[in-house]
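User: Predict the complex.
Assistant: Input components as received:
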Amino acid sequence: MAITTAAVTLESDLLSDNMSVTASSTLMKAGTTADGLDQMEYGYLDLPTGDEYDLIATTPTASKASKLYLKNHSDDETYYIAVTQNAQAIGKLYGGDWMFIPADFHDAAGDIAITANGGTNKICYALFHEGTALVTT
Amino acid sequence: MATRCSISISSDIAPGFGGISEEMTLTQAGNLVDIDSTTGFAIRKLSATGAVDLVTMANELVEPKDSVAAKIYIRNIGYRDVIDKSVGVTIGVNAEPIGKLYGGDWMMMPLTCIDADDITVTPDNDNTVVIEYVMFYEEA
């Protein structure tokens, strides 16, 4: 079985005592405890301003257990990328921010789309999934 | 200390993949000032399949500023030390399903904090499951 683990540590001093949370998850296929996600896509690219782009060109199998990591590697903290799914705004990743979400891709419109602001943003992404609909030539 | 979050991903799917290890400090939009508000760390127990609001943006006691640098951490922690990897909870934003957290899965996601963009949770079945979460945001 392919094994992919994602661990997080979150610390904050905004409360009266320091908060610290750690968690780790092995990324499994949907609805199973015996089979891990076994396919991935990984990239690092420049994202120019001006248009909204689909981050994932192929279509992972809908409603499975895909996980998406995305980081804005821009050095300028005023730069950001706006992230949407199916035209619903999710949020903004400023320079240095990252996100890690389960990605539903529930239909053809369920793509994750990104738009650069401030200038050309550098992004890194990784999609862990269990199958895509490949596009024939 | 501010608010910091680090991620580490390891995988043997692709030969040569060296993994991912990154850290971010949660700051306000467009500058390096630390993010200043939080919902606090909380849990929500769910025992039915209907969608409920995990965060209702219009009901926050400290009004979040819209469309800036908010983030939310959410994790499916199962129930009474039993983590079921086969059953999930769909996380949504303004009724749009973002994805499903199976037992033990976690996510860190940016938010708009616009009043319509509530965070919803919808369990797969009626079995009790607990979601833990914390939202960080800028005060309006």
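Residues 29 and 84 of chain A are 24 Å apart (CA to CA).
Let me know if you want any component modeled separately.
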